[in-house]
Design a protein that fits this description.
Strand content: under 5%
Order of helices and strands: HHHHHHHHHHHHHHHH
Radius of gyration: 20 Å
Number of strands: 0
Shape: globular
CATH architecture of the largest domain: Up-down Bundle
CATH class of the largest domain: Mainly Alpha
Number of domains: 2
Helix content: over 70%
Distance between the termini: 32 Å
Structural class: mainly alpha
CATH superfamily of the largest domain: MFS general substrate transporter like domains
Length: 413
């Protein structure tokens, strides 16, 4: 059974192969939001446009994803999930195909908006994995699927840089289109059918999300933090391609993409924050991660002045620190959000993730503008200001939210 407006009913039935399939699908779908980041300089030259204009591509993909989170993901409570996931994946594949043949920048930007909408199916897959898993395996199953999603985000830059070096930026989206289309076929074959059981309308479900935001102070705090976290994350990864393509580095797309591996290394340490929350130290974990995030911008600035090995090492450590801070705080946020009102987890996730990726859109815009105005130094100042704002809001807001209703004593740590 499900609560009104809740999850579809499914019999727990999920093996390791299906878990892996869902994890890979999440990663490949969400990677569409980040393929463009190491390619911005190449795309700018391809269409003879300014670098700042090319940076809009990252923003457009995230706008599409935010639209999907707000309006497509809630459909998972109303219609059969497998059909929704497969349809959205095919939309993403078609959009990537349009990107391949785009004759001009406006069509490419529009294609990436559509790809972002389709990619939001990843947020339908996560609750589906939870519903399919047995109670004793649910946490591990969801963790594995989320790991696939995060790996896709971070390795997207490496893959796109490598493919661009092989055959140009259009090859990146061609390979993505084929991969997603194949995954859609496999999903159609192996994902079990779910039967939606709801007592509300689509409009009612959307309205209940706004009610949750209005009533839960802790949710609003975590949404604000999530937006700032993703903004800081996007400032770095949108601007990094410009820094590394210019002197003194002058790296090609493949080398620029390799810096995504540094992000993976940092993010793989982030689940420590989740374990701290499980042990009752959620607030401490958030404070620690936000402090690391703020400090990372000093390293990112110091490592940008030279192509010497020592400077590059400092830059890489800064990237690792930023991804550790952002992803660690993000995991801590999700652990808190999901226990605010357990029967409304899907809607809580929609509210949080819309805010999260909305922040990513603003961060991408801020990166393009700040880099155009004053280069890497101004970009780092922008990122540091966003990170400082996140830490300040957290330190001021956590005491104010201590009296809000949270249905789990361990959340506050």
């Amino acid at each position: 059974m499900t609560e009104p407006g809740g999850s579809s009913t499914t019999e727990p039935t999920i093996g390791r192969g299906l878990v892996l399939l869902l994890a890979v699908t999440c990663g490949v779908l969400v990677a569409n939001l980040y393929y463009a980041q190491p390619l911005l300089d190449t795309i700018a030259r391809s269409f003879d446009i300014e670098e700042g204009t090319a940076g809009i591509l990252v923003t457009t993909a995230q706008i599409g994803y935010a639209i999907g989170l707000a309006f497509l993901v809630p459909l998972g409570d109303l219609i059969e999930r497998r059909r929704l996931i497969v349809t959205a994946a095919l939309i993403c594949a078609v959009a990537d195909g349009i990107a391949v043949v785009s004759p001009g920048f406006p069509m490419l930007a529009a294609a990436l908006v559509l790809a972002g909408v389709g990619a939001s199916a990843a947020m339908v897959i996560v609750p589906l994995a939870s519903a399919l898993a047995a109670e004793e395996d649910r946490g591990r199953t969801v963790g594995t699927v989320m790991s696939g999603l995060l790996t896709g985000i971070l390795l997207a830059r490496t893959v796109s840089g490598f493919l661009s070096e092989l055959g140009g930026w259009r090859l990146v989206y061609g390979v993505a289109a084929v991969a997603i289309a194949l995954l859609a076929v496999v999903l159609r074959k192996y994902v079990p059918v779910s039967t939606p059981v709801v007592t509300d309308t689509y409009r009612g479900i959307l309205g209940s999300i706004l009610t949750l935001v209005r009533e839960l102070r802790e949710l609003r705090l975590r949404m604000a933090l999530g937006a700032l976290l993703m903004a800081a994350f996007s400032v770095l990864w949108t601007g990094l391609a410009f820094l590394l393509a210019a002197p003194p580095f002058s790296y090609g797309d493949a080398v620029i993409g390799l810096f995504g591996i540094a992000g993976v290394a940092g993010a793989l340490m982030a689940p420590i924050a989740g374990r701290m929350t499980d042990k009752g130290h959620g607030r401490r974990a958030t404070t620690l991660c936000l402090t690391i995030l703020l400090a990372s911008w000093a390293l990112l600035f110091l490592g940008s002045g030279s192509s010497a090995v020592s400077a590059v090492v400092v830059l890489i450590v800064g990237i690792m620190a930023l991804d550790l801070g952002t992803q660690g705080a993000h995991i801590s946020n999700q652990n808190v959000v999901f226990v605010l009102d357990p029967p409304a987890r899907n809607r809580l996730n929609t509210a949080y993730m819309v805010s999260y990726f909305g922040g990513g859109v603003l961060g991408s815009v801020a990166a393009s503008v700040s880099y155009s105005v004053g280069g890497w130094a101004v970009l780092c100042l922008t990122g540091a200001a966003i990170s400082l704002a996140a830490l300040a809001i957290w330190l001021l807001g956590r005491s104010a939210s201590s009296g809000s209703v949270v249905r789990s004593d361990h959340v506050h740590g």
